[in-house]
Design a protein that fits this description.
With 212 residues, the chain is of the alpha/beta class. The chain is built from 9 helices and 11 strands. The structure holds adenosine-5'-triphosphate and magnesium ion.
Length: 212
């Protein structure tokens, strides 16, 4: 049995065409069922639905043989025990610094003030500000980062942006672009050796179907 870990939503949706290229069709709709284990047309392949941030953990410990996870999630996880053979070029967005539209970020940085930054991505944020020599107090959040500058919890946030509409709707502006984000295929290192005959052709089929 091959177990593939996916998160519901955009990663699930954008992974379907890659699975199709490997001849794999998920036969249940995660939005319509409460099942956490989904069957496919192949009796030897199943999909498990986990939180996006839990995908690397499932694959690392062998709860799943392979999975799809965002670069954001992988950088926070650290990538230990994971083989990362492919950038799938799906679920694309960017990681950025954003502030309230009336906050003068450049002046705060120039003055060397300590900046309070709220984020789910503390590892990436810490590294980013250390590289710039900016002193920050990081506040770990698990969601709705946009709210932090509006309530006075923080001066800035580090968050994922795609269209920028959520920022605009909350009177926030992007002031720095940290990195481009896309999702990657992650494979359990032991599984790759033990189940190589099944996994290798799957990985090759995914590679052939990566969107431009
Ligand atoms: P949850 O919504 O359950 O709290 P999550 O926000 O991590 O978890 P998703 O919103 O489905 O889950 O995001 C999954 C992955 O998709 C992220 O880790 C990131 O790589 C990517 N992603 C997040 N936001 C966007 C976006 N706006 N556009 C494109 N890709 C995104
Ligand atoms: Mg989300």
């Amino acid at each position: 049995m091959i177990t593939l870990a996916l998160s519901k939503g955009r990663i699930f949706e954008e992974t379907l065409p890659l699975l199709a290229a490997a001849g794999i069709e998920v036969t249940e709709d995660p939005e319509k069922s409460r099942k956490l284990i989904l069957a496919t047309n192949r009796p030897d392949v199943r999909v498990v639905l986990v939180r996006a941030t839990d995908v690397p953990t499932y694959v690392q410990y062998g709860g799943a043989d392979l999975g799809v996870a965002g670069k954001d999630v992988l950088l926070e996880h650290g990538g230990e025990g994971l083989y990362q053979p492919l950038d799938l070029n799906i679920a694309k967005c960017r990681m950025s610094v954003a502030v309230r539209d009336d906050f003068d970020y450049q002046a705060a940085v120039r003055q060397g003030s300590r900046i309070r930054v709220a984020t789910k991505y503390t590892t990436v944020a810490r590294q980013h500000f250390a590289d710039k020599g900016v002193h920050v107090d990081l506040i770990k959040l698990y969601g709705s980062m946009e709210l932090a500058p509006l309530t006075g919890l923080a001066d800035a946030i580090v968050d994922l942006v795609s269209t920028g509409k959520t920022l605009v709707a909350n009177h926030l502006v992007e002031v720095e672009h940290i990195m481009e984000i896309s999702s990657r295929l992650v494979v359990n290192q032991a599984a790759l050796k033990l189940k190589r005959d099944t996994l290798r052709p799957m990985i090759d089929a995914f590679a052939s179907a990566i969107p431009a």
